Amino acid sequence: MKKYILIPFLSLLMLFNTGCDDYLDVNNNVDAPDYVEDYLYLSGIIQSYQDISFDLMNAILPMTSMWTTTNGYGFADHFWRKGAASSDSGQLIWRTIYWGQGMNLENMINQAIAAGHWRLAGIGYAIKAHSWDVLAKVYAEAPLKQVFDTERTRFDYDSQADIYEAVRGWAKEAIKYLEMDDPTVYGTKLTDNDWIYKGDAAKWKRFAYGVIVRNLASLSNKKDFATKYADELIAAANNALVSSADDAMVQVAGGSGSVLFSGYNNAWGTQRGNLGSTFFQNDYMVQLMTGTIPKYGENGRRLKQDPVLNPYYQYELLEQQIITDTLINEAGHYDPRVAVKLSTASDPEYLYIDNADSVKAHQYYGGRTNTTRANPGGIATTPQLYGRIEAVKNSTTGNPNDGIGRWIFRDNAPYVLMTSAEIKFCLAEAYWKKGDKANAYKAFKEAVKNDLDFTVKPLYPGTKGIIGGGDKITASLYNSLANQYYAGPYVEGLGENNLTLSHIMLQKYVALYPWGGIEAWTDLRKYHYDIVYSGEYPSKGNGWDDIRLIDTKRDEDPTKVFKGFFLGASRDIEFRNAAFNIDNDGSPCYRIRPRYNSEYMWNIESLEKLKPISGMAPNYQCSIPWFAYPGEVPAN
Q1: Where are the alpha helices (DSSP H) in 260-348?
Q2: Confidence of residue 376 (pLDDT cuts 50, 70, 90)
Q3: Do the beta carbons of residue 63 and residue 211 sit within 8 Å?
């Protein structure tokens, strides 16, 4: 997990290599060749996407209130703990795009074009567009135009707007090459090295269109979105991922303890031990997916039932739940995704995984803040992500254990990059912003259906009577309940007239859990975390103050998008009212700082020039990115 390569300064290594020709002919060194065939780059480039998992779990998921963590890096509290600098925590995406892929990807694309390998060139451009879109959303400004200039030792930062334009340009280049007639006989060169689509040009083209959709969707709260970006998004979405069969997932071989290198297993599986007992689901995810978002009184405290009718739900609930409700015995009211996406300590021996009544009765708990495992009800402990209270044990430790894991927290589970459901939710939001409610509702229903289909694909049911890991529902039962849910009051039965922006964005939030945390964080930031402010964007004294508390919209506010969501420093809200770190100057986090071991050691002069907040300022992580401004970035 720990990697200490300097990032934008790969160019220095290139300079060194070009100076070696006088005394070493590397072309004759079979152990360290200076040239490889283009297709041989592909496998390593794709597998490098596993690094996103580490930045998700350590930094991004806790900031989105999808997960809670006790790791102490500080991101869960929305600030950058300086002691985390040497760990690369939150900075592995930077490393992956600049170094792990970096010149390897450039070489693959350039060599493929020179050789007339159009399909491989298109795949390369699609990957490049996707990777830089991720980079720009996490870090905002970054070196782009000068980054592979071998004459430089310092690199200027380009604006997020420029990077966004480049992303869409690369995606269109991908589409161009993937549509070209390619007479190349690849044999197994693509099928053996493409861990996503096995060289399928049609699917890669849909993926490239999906990158355009994602990129433009982050601009949906800009003043000119409906007139400048929406139509392009809609056109791209109609050519992007269609169904769950198009979902972009990096296949992982797994093998648990039998493999030579543990990295052959998924980073979130039990064998590698990265999740351990440090990461847990947040209670907001539980509330959202069980229909138990509480009602808060004027004093910000939850209203307790009197009398308490159910010890599991002790508090009055918000009248309008967005995803589901507690009427689990009525057909269509129960969302079976909760039995797969979230963990539960119920049914520890997997005895009732095919019994609908038992599965519906599972109880779910989450950490009451982004930094603690304790549940706000105080009646249970949040289980670890594999579904037990006890410490994680993998399949090599003997029973009872967590086996190889469950769902996408499994040794041989794929890494998810993009789904058709996500694209359809972006489409629904775009139609909504254009005022086309009929098409918004149509796309919304397709999106939910696609996520129901996606969720069951990595399902890995446990074995009855054995505490050995796995999911606590069978695929056949899930599919039956999924069909009922789709036909029920929260999807088909919702009706076009009842559709709100909250339905679109919160169903998308559920669909992104947890693999798509970057896009979920992007959505939260573009709607400014539902902060109460006047004008075009929040600022100190207009959303937060010297006490370092945030004014967050109450759920009764019709303009609040993310119902039930409250930042960890929300004024007066029970369990959500701990002041942000003093370095934030009151603000929540809007970006992650670039990699310490390159930028803060070697590129300080460029960091100092960043606006409106300097990259060297204690609160640089609070600098609002371009995509979240309704207009352009202010000069100061």
Answers
A1: 283-290, 338-341
A2: confident
A3: no
